[in-house]
Amino acid sequence: MSDHLNHDPAFSLEEALARVDNDRETFQMMTELFMEHGPKDLADAQTALDAGNAAGVTRSSHRLKGALLQFCAPAALLACKELEESAKTGNLTHGAQLYATLEQELQRLLAALRHVLDKGIAA
Questions:
Q1: How many C-beta neighbours within 10 Å does residue 59 have?
Q2: Considering all CA atoms of the chain, what is the largest pairwise distance in Å, rounded to the nearest integer?
Q3: CA gap 8, 17 in Å, rounded
Q4: Distance, CA of 81 to CA of 67 (rounded, Å)
Q5: 70 φ, ψ to 5°?
Q6: Percent of the chain with pLDDT over 70
Q7: Rg for the chain (alpha carbons), in Å?
């Protein structure tokens, strides 16, 4: 086991719910949308990164960042911001490394969200 794994909660359900006035249906809809679009934005960022397209990486990571803000997911958000900031400068030297961290945190967040949806959001 790598000691680089993040053991903090992937996101705060309480805070995320508070942002939608504890409307569980809205939260569920938002989560389902994110589970569909989050991986697409991540894939777009990867494609842009592979192509050395800094503007594309900036766009995709910016979209993803907006979605991540809703979930109060600090680690994923930080990884996303770092990738976006790096791409904004047109420098993709650390892009692969930043992307790998983002991908890891996004997978952790998606797993946590899936878990919440599967067991249902307790009232």
A1: 17
A2: 46
A3: 19
A4: 12
A5: -65, -25
A6: 92
A7: 15
Asked if pLDDT for residue 13 goes beyond 80, the answer is: yes
pLDDT, residue 4, reads 55
Q: Domain residue spans in the chain?
A: 13-119
CA 62 to CA 54: how far, in whole Å? Answer: 12
With 0-12 / 13-18 / 19 or more C-beta atoms within 10 angstroms meaning exposed / middle / buried, residue 123 is: exposed
Question: In the structure, what pLDDT confidence band is assigned to residue 2 with cuts at 50, 70 and 90?
Answer: very low
| Model confidence, pTM | 0.89
**How many angstroms from the chain centroid is the CA of residue 34?**
9
Name the packing angle between helices 74-88 and 54-69 (round to 10°). Answer: 160
Residues in the chain, total: 123
Q: What is the DSSP letter of 2?
A: -
Q: What does CATH list as the number for 13-119?
A: 1.20.120
pLDDT digits 0-9 by tens, 17-46: 999 999 999 999 999 999 999 999 999 999
